[in-house]
Structure formats: structure tokens, C-alpha cells
């Protein structure tokens, strides 16, 4: 795969805001030794079977592990993540390896994780590094114990501190509970771990499902789900919360949907549910049930780009100021069902929002020729 030269001179994130700048799929499903550079707005391109969706799943898995999720929850079918031609070792073990780089105030920080999928699911190795220094390293020393041996950088009277960590979750997010921060080395470990965890958190994996967006939905949390099924419930909440942002959203819908659009709103339906409507401005209101699949996907993706962690169903780092966090949207099939003007407008919106530094987008499309050369867009071509 290769990144296009249309890199992002006009898109400069806040230098202290942690962000993932590289995804590594050393051995994951169909990927071998794959290194994917990630800019503020990245388009993964390639034909069916090249691993676009797999790459997004790997990113999402790292994000969930960074948030403290258990390994079995993140990988319910771990064998599917093992490269197809991977041979088991003498102990019949097979697994996969993924990693990423987070940039920020602590400089580039690398995280690499080795997961055993068979015969038992467990993390067998983890390494956190910065400037060539190993800040955390874990290894499975005793297969009979449900723990890995961890060593983290101390740079005090003892160069490292050793202790067991569980083998069913990532060690990096556990470091603040284990490292005292008394020496310069320990403080460096904590800074790197925090940067990595903050960069990985607040990920929203999104693939709108038009078939489920047409029906009324019960009111709930007002937080958008990944399939955008509950879009009406979110509009019920957000329309009154920020008039300026809602006006921008309506202007975008006006470009991407047929006919006049004066407003996008939700109204009560039978049984305590709500349904979403387009106000045509002449006394006519069109329910979403009348819109085409492309219009619905466009509308949902525009809403995602104009909202934030407080509206989307994500796991933000609550202990970190919002100004130092970035929402990353993972959009599979970004241009699926869209007409050329719809995808062009969505790309324009995405470039504008990503340029502000609060949102990053990793989108997957079969062909990125329509996006290549666009200012602020990084195109990564994947080969089958």
C-alpha cells in the first residue's frame, strides 16, 4: 500500500492533542507487515478483499483495548483474526499482531501487541516504546498462569520494575494504577501511556443502515449508535442544543438531498417514539421513510461529522480536558450508495471539520480517485 502525496499542509492538528498517526497490521487476518499512515482525514482505498474493513476493525479493537475492555469482548471470534496461512507452533499456538503510533506532547509513542488466539485467547506480548526506549514490555513466561510478566522503565536505583499483569487486557491503560511517578523514568512511562490511551479513546465506528433509519424509534440516551438506527432520537435532542451547528447540518442536508430543505427535525410518533422529518418550508414535511438509501447515508454521515463525543456512542477519556481529545470516526463504505455530488460534499465537510483538529476520519472506499489530490486528504491504497 502507499500514501498519496496529497498530504495535509492545510490541516494541522493542535500539537499537544494526542492522535494516532500510524496503524500496523504485522500479522492480522489478510494483512502481513502492513503499515498504514493516518492523517487527520485518511481514505483507505482498494477492491473488495483487500482488507479495508479488517484495518478499521483492528483500529477499533486497539481503541477498545486502550479503554480497558477485556480481550474476549474485543475479539469474540479471535481465530478469524489469525492470518490464514499461519502455522501453529509445537504447542499448537497461533495468534496475530497489531500496533499503532500515537503522536503528541510526549513525541511519537509506539504500541505493539501480540495476541494468542489458539488454544486460549490471551495477550502474550506487549511493548510500549518512545525514542527507542522500551517503557513497558510484557511476555508470557508461564502458560499455566493467567498473567504475563511485565517490566516497565524506572531509571531509578533499579532500571526497571517487574510485576505480573493480567493476560486478558492491555497493560498500557493499567500503568497509572501501578506506576508511582516518583522518578523521571516513571513519569516518562506515565506520559507515554496517557498519550496512547487518550489517542485511542473516543473512537466511533460508523456504517449507517438506511433500512433501520426509516422507522420511528423510542426516545433514549440521545447518543447516536454506530448504525445510526436511532437518528431520530438524536435529532430530538440535538436540534435545540446548538443552533449554529444544527444550521450547518441543515445546510449540508440541503446540498445532499433532493428537493427544498428548510429544517431537519424530529416529532413525537405513536407509542412514545419519535420520527425524523425534512421540513420542506412550504408546509410539507417528508418522513425519512420516503428518502433513498443514499440520501439517508449522506444525512447520517453529515450528522456524525457535525456532532461530537457528547452525542455519539463513544468512550471519551473523562479525566482529560476536551480540548486535548480528538474524536476519530471510522467509516466503512464511506461512499456506498452516494451520488458524486453527495460524496464530494461529505468530503468537503470532513476536510473542514478535520482541519479544526477535533475530529479525525478514517474512511474506507473501493476507489479513491475522486478524493485523490484533494487538499487535506491522505489516500492509502491497499492491495488485495
Blueprint (SSEs and pairs):
Blueprint: E1 2-3, E2 19-28, E3 31-37, E4 41-45, H1 52-66, H2 71-74, E5 94-103, E6 109-118, E7 122-130, E8 133-139, E9 147-153, E10 160-166, H3 175-178, H4 184-200, E11 203-206, H5 210-213, E12 217-218, H6 231-238, H7 243-256, E13 263-268, E14 273-279, E15 285-287, H8 293-306, E16 327-331, H9 340-355, E17 359-365, E18 378-381
Parallel strand pairs: 4-17, 4-18, 11-16, 16-17
Antiparallel strand pairs: 1-18, 2-3, 2-5, 5-6, 6-7, 7-8, 8-9, 9-10, 12-14, 13-14, 14-15
Helix pairs in contact: 1-4, 7-8, 8-9
Give an account of the 3D structure.
25% of the residues lie in helices and 29% in strands. Helix 1 crosses helix 4 (184-200), helix 7 (243-256) runs antiparallel to helix 8 and helix 8 (293-306) packs parallel to helix 9. It has an 8-stranded antiparallel sheet with strand order 3-2-5-6-7-8-9-10, with helices on one face. The model is unreliable at 4-13 (pLDDT under 50). The chain folds into 2 domains: 2-202, no CATH class; 211-314, no CATH class. It is an alpha+beta fold and 384 residues long.
Helical content (DSSP H or I, runs of 4+): 25-40%
Mean pLDDT: 89
Termini distance? 10 Å
Taken as a percent bin, the fraction of beta residues is: 25-35%
Count structural domains: 2
Strand order of the largest sheet: 3-2-5-6-7-8-9-10
Number of helices: 9
Order of helices and strands: EEEEHHEEEEEEHHEHEHHEEEHEHEE
Shape, per Cα inertia axes: elongated
How many DSSP-defined strands? 18
GO molecular function, one term: ATP binding
InterPro entries: P-loop_NTPase
Protein name: ATP-binding protein
Keywords: ATP-binding, Nucleotide-binding
